[in-house]
Task: inverse folding
């Protein structure tokens, strides 16, 4: 993929993210309606999630009719170009529902099989419309918050690291995730659960978090944010698939990653024995 192509893809992702973010923001101001629940009663989809995804899908179909589409709220379609758009219309749906100004539209384009273990992310845009913050990245071209280039903070020792994580929607998964947090809280500066994985990954890029980890994410939760973090110099890795085959994702500056990964692996091993 040439540099010009990645830049064109990024420009499209950026333009659509701005329009979709504005729509999500407007709908939030008008009042949010729950359309249905998904994996559990807590896992909801709003009318706005569906409307925003429909808009993104239509814009992509117009501009890139031969690409595939893989989004949270509608059926995936394969394309013939080898590229797939991986889209979360509203990441941080529960924040959105409660009017907490921490949610995002996330749009990435990947080459190859649209599976996180094998795809190559080419470009991504993540927008928090409530704060007017647009994160963008293209492979090999760095990442940006609005116009500001991003670079991860290095030299943070584990004991002073601010860690972010998230919880799934099903009770057994959450209980396991809470047990991991219990093992971790004494080893790091503190832990945040901010509620939007795409923004957590971007927070590693800006230095608002030192490390982010979560097990059980969906591909659309992390496709764009992981590229923003990686292009800012973070190491983004995965290990230890759970029973559903979803890996644990970790993003941190490379030096912190080296210290953090064995700590988590040790916690997982201990929990598995208990
Ligand atoms: C959720 C958020 C949350 C993370 C969950 C995700 P959604 O996505 O990213 O922070 O902890 O694992 O499912 O449902 O708001 O799109």
Result:
């Amino acid at each position: 993929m040439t540099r010009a192509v990645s830049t064109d893809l990024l420009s499209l992702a950026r333009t659509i993210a701005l329009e979709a973010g504005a729509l999500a923001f407007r709908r939030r101001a008008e009042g949010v309606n729950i359309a249905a629940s998904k994996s559990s009663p807590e896992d909801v989809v709003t009318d706005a999630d569906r409307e925003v995804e429909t808009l993104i899908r239509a814009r992509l179909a117009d501009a890139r009719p031969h690409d595939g589409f893989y989004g949270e709220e509608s059926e995936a379609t394969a394309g013939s170009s080898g590229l797939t758009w991986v889209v979360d219309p509203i990441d941080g749906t529960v924040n959105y529902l409660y009017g907490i100004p921490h949610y995002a539209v996330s749009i990435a384009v990947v080459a190859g099989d649209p599976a996180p273990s094998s795809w190559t992310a080419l470009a991504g845009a993540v927008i928090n419309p409530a704060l007017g913050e647009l994160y963008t990245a293209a492979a090999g071209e760095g990442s940006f918050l609005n116009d500001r280039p991003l670079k991860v903070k290095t030299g943070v020792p584990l004991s002073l690291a601010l860690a972010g994580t998230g919880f799934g929607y099903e009770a057994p998964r959450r209980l396991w995730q809470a047990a991991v947090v219990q093992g971790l809280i004494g080893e790091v500066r503190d832990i945040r659960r901010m509620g939007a994985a795409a923004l957590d990954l971007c927070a590693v890029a800006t230095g608002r978090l030192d490390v982010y980890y979560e097990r059980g994410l969906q591909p659309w939760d992390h496709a764009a944010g992981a590229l923003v973090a990686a292009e800012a110099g973070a190491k983004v890795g995965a290990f230890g698939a759970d029973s559903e085959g979803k890996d644990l994702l970790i993003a941190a500056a490379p030096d912190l990653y080296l210290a953090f990964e064995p700590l988590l692996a040790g916690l997982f091993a201990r929990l598995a024995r208990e």
Summary: The chain has two domains: 3-149, 158-273. The first strand starts at residue 34 and ends at 37. The pocket of D-MYO-inositol-1-phosphate is lined by residues 88, 91-93, 166-168, 195-197, 214, 217, 221 (CB under 6 Å). Residues 3-30 form the longest helix (28 residues).
